[in-house]
Specification:
Number of domains: 4
Number of helices: 28
Distance between the termini: 138 Å
Largest sheet: 6 strands, antiparallel
Helix content: 55-70%
Strand content: 5-15%
CATH architecture of the largest domain: 2-Layer Sandwich
Strand order of the largest sheet: 3-2-1-6-5-4
Number of strands: 16
CATH superfamily of the largest domain: PAS domain
Oligomer: single chain
CATH class of the largest domain: Alpha Beta
Shape: flat
CATH topology of the largest domain: Beta-Lactamase
């Protein structure tokens, strides 16, 4: 036991005293494993407490929104049903005349209407109509009762004389028997908008209806819920009969802030409030914070247990993982040591540093071998530079690359491309299968000529049976112009052509002092070589495109594509075809690269198919189920004119036709909606703006659609509807001309003028003529 204890003490002492990477890794791993767990544990507890309140608040907001929506919809439905009853056939008739001619019929009609309204609105505690002439209150529940009290009759008469056509009253309404309980009461004049109403309509909703809705959402002990009107008057509540003092003012002060703390009766509450957009009522919920913290305490206990378990497993895993990670390092160091004695003053890093010094000499030998391969590497770098592989490099990075490959900077650059056309005629030195040999011979000839002319440059195999020469000149030699390079190119062409006995063409670029423009110079030389198909080969062809980039770098006309898509979406055939013509013109910039034209039309085809898909048009309707691949069809077309014709016939025409059909159907539905609205509400003061707002259109656009679909303007159709209805009333009723005018939405003078303009006689003359017949 003593020996074992000494061994363990020696190992632990050696672990803590000796410099080792393993000790540092263990310390760091434990720190990384324990600290984040502690931070996460503490943060989780703090976050959970806040999250519980936040979630409860969000839940309360949803609850209050549900309560508000339920109550608002109930009030709105009852109000709309009451308005519909008051605007219905019975109350729109001449009640005064009915009262004088059929007294019992009047009250039986009122009772019938009230019963129907009561049966359709189960939430209503009572529905009644008060007629001041007899002082009678008619109700489906209580029957007919006479209001004997003069103060009550005076209060009801004052209500009848007020300017309000319809309003809600909160709380008891003592002027009526049975209405002195909490709740809300709708008071409306009967009939609405009449100059001399015959009475008042009362619809009472008891407080219990609201409380039944609120009770369904109470979840916590001590939770309270209040509904206050816009002035702070209590409508109803759950959990307390009184509104806490200062609560309404605090809710108004907080504004849009939906959650805040509030102390009441030595209890802290979390208050959530919303405001109804229908009637500006405040819906307020108060939950004791103590109830919320009860959930957080449980979460805290669970979090502490999880943190403790994670700390234990984290420490064990850190020790195990560190040992696993360190094992390759330990093996590497042991392998590098090769049986050497340990250095107590140096750790693994120090030992590897010593070994690095030993490897440096070996690296120098390898560097020398690399220098021998520099010409080939330099050529590869130059080829990548010509192809634009380093355009994304910064100036400093590019300068470093030039220094690495011994390429002179701050020189004027130019590029020539040498192309040869192998012939099968007799007398040639090389055949088709000798292309690699030809390229090798051309490179040697160029290198010897550069050396003889004392010019600097890099000869590059383009790997496409062509050779490029990147030439550098001192800016001080620019006074010589392009003549020296042209002479060099012409002499080179003659030498290569005579030696190879082939047709040799050299493309010559412009000059530039900026390394970043070398890829453009290369493109210029390539374009010059390609043009031999037009101007002829076996010569030096200098690029004549100036400094413009349109011939070298083709830019896809994205703005034309976007405009083309918008035109298809709007169904504008003329504009879509015009965009196709503009697209064809833009292709002239890529006429030297047919593959770019083909790719551009591929992209335009994709845009058109995408537009058709977004519009809901099946591609089978464009090309048919058994049609060939449209992209393959583009490859078979040889001219831009044929491409445009095919696009217009197979894409533009069916898409535009589909959009027009869809728009026409939507327009017909909108116009029918306006027509129904006119026929149902012609007796009101209607306007084009009202109908446009209903349809979600501008008045001007609705006017154009209406005229197009109905062949008459909006005002002409409205006038015709009103005149037709007035003729029906003149023929079938004994209503006066003034009453008829009011029934069809006109003032009397305007009605007589419009009637005579359309019928040719005044309403009175029309009725008189009809009577004589």
């Amino acid at each position: 036991m003593i020996v074992l204890r000494k061994v363990l003490n020696y190992k632990w002492k050696r672990f803590f005293q000796r410099k080792t990477m393993f000790r540092n890794m263990v310390t760091l791993a434990l720190f990384v494993a324990i600290i984040p767990v502690l931070v996460v544990g503490i943060g989780s507890y703090l976050y959970s407490a806040s999250a519980v309140q936040s979630e409860v608040n969000q839940s309360n907001v949803r609850i209050l929104n549900n309560v508000s929506a339920t109550i608002d919809s109930t009030l709105d439905r009852i109000q709309n049903n009451g308005i519909q009853m008051l605007l219905g056939t019975f109350f729109s008739s001449n009640l005064t005349e009915l009262k004088n001619t059929n007294y019992s019929g009047l009250y039986s009609g009122i009772a019938r209407e009230l019963s129907a309204l009561m049966s359709g609105n189960k939430e209503a505690g009572d529905v009644a109509i008060y007629v001041p002439d007899e002082g009678y209150l008619t109700s489906p529940i209580y029957g007919g009762r006479k209001i004997e009290s003069q103060p009550e009759r005076d209060a009801l008469q004052k209500e009848l004389d007020s300017e309000d056509q319809l309003k809600w009253v909160i709380g008891p309404y003592p002027a009526l028997p049975g209405y002195n309980v909490n709740g809300v009461t709708l008071i409306a004049k009967a009939p609405l908008l009449a100059k001399h109403p015959i009475g008042l309509l009362f619809i009472r909703i008891d407080e219990a209806q609201f409380q039944n809705i609120m009770n369904r959402f109470i979840s916590y002990d001590g939770e309270q819920m209040f509904i206050l009107d816009a002035k702070g008057q209590l409508v109803t509540s759950i959990g307390s009969d009184e509104v806490p003092q200062g609560l309404f003012d605090l809710v108004a002060q907080k504004g849009s802030e939906q959650r805040f703390a509030f102390a009441y009766n030595e209890t802290d509450y979390m208050v959530t409030s919303i405001t109804s957009s229908y009637n500006k009522w405040q819906y307020i919920n108060m939950v004791p914070i103590k109830q919320l913290n009860a959930k957080s305490n449980g979460i805290a206990t669970i979090t502490l247990i999880i943190v403790a378990v994670c700390l234990v497993f984290g420490a064990l895993f850190a020790l195990w993982g560190t040992r696993r990670v360190y094992r390759p390092i330990q093996n590497l160091v042991a392998h590098v040591k090769g049986g050497q004695a340990d250095d107590a003053e140096a750790d693994e890093v120090g030992f590897m540093h010593k070994r690095w010094a030993e490897l440096s000499s070996t690296a120098n030998d390898l560097q020398q071998q690399l220098s021998d391969q520099l010409p080939l590497i330099r050529e590869i770098f130059a080829l990548q530079l010509l192809q634009g592989r380093f355009l994304h490099y910064s100036p400093d990075q590019l300068a470093g690359m030039l220094r690495r490959y011994d390429v002179p900077a701050e020189r004027e650059s130019s590029v020539i491309v040498i192309a040869f056309d192998v012939q099968t005629d007799g007398g040639v030195r090389f055949q088709e299968n000798d292309r690699d040999l030809i390229v090798f011979a051309v490179k040697n000839i160029v290198s010897e000529l550069l050396q003889a002319q004392e010019m600097e440059g890099i000869v590059i195999n383009l790997l496409n049976d062509q050779v490029a020469v990147w030439l550098f000149r001192d800016p001080m030699q620019m006074e010589e112009g392009d003549s020296s390079i042209k002479l060099f190119s012409e002499r080179l062409r003659v030498l290569v052509s005579d030696y190879l006995r082939l047709s040799v063409t050299i493309g010559l670029s412009g000059q530039s002092e900026r390394i970043g423009e070398v890829p453009e110079l290369y493109e210029e030389a390539l374009l010059a070589v390609r043009s031999r198909m037009i101007v002829g080969g076996n010569q030096v062809i200098a690029h004549t495109g100036g400094s413009g980039h349109s011939e070298i770098h083709y830019r896809y006309p994205l703005e034309i594509e976007t405009h083309f898509e918008n035109s298809l979406q709007l169904g504008d055939r003329e504009e879509a075809e015009r965009m196709m013509d503009e697209f064809a013109k833009s292709m002239e910039e890529a006429i030297h690269k047919p593959e770019l034209i083909q790719m551009s039309y591929y992209r335009l085809l994709t845009a058109a198919i995408r537009t058709a898909y977004l519009l809901g048009l099946d591609t089978n309707q464009l090309f048919g189920e058994e049609s060939s691949d449209p992209y393959l069809h583009i490859r078979k077309i040889s001219t831009i004119l044929e491409l445009n014709t095919w696009f217009k016939a197979c894409l533009v025409e069916p898409i535009v036709a589909f959009v027009h059909g869809k728009q026409h159907q939507e327009h017909e539905q909108l116009i029918q909606k306006v027509v129904r609205y006119i026929e149902e509400n012609y007796h009101f003061d209607l306007s084009l703006d009202q109908c446009a707002q209903i349809c979600g259109l501008s008045p001007h656009y609705l006017s154009k659609l209406f005229k197009k679909n109905m062949d008459v303007s909006f005002i002409e159709y409205l006038t015709k509807t009103r005149i037709d209805q007035s003729i029906e009333l003149l023929n079938t009723t004994d209503l006066s001309v003034s009453d008829v005018a009011e029934r069809v939405g006109y003032q009397t003078k305007n009605f007589i003028r419009v009637f005579k303009k359309h019928i040719g006689v005044t309403p009175g003359q029309y009725r008189g003529a009809d009577s004589e017949n």
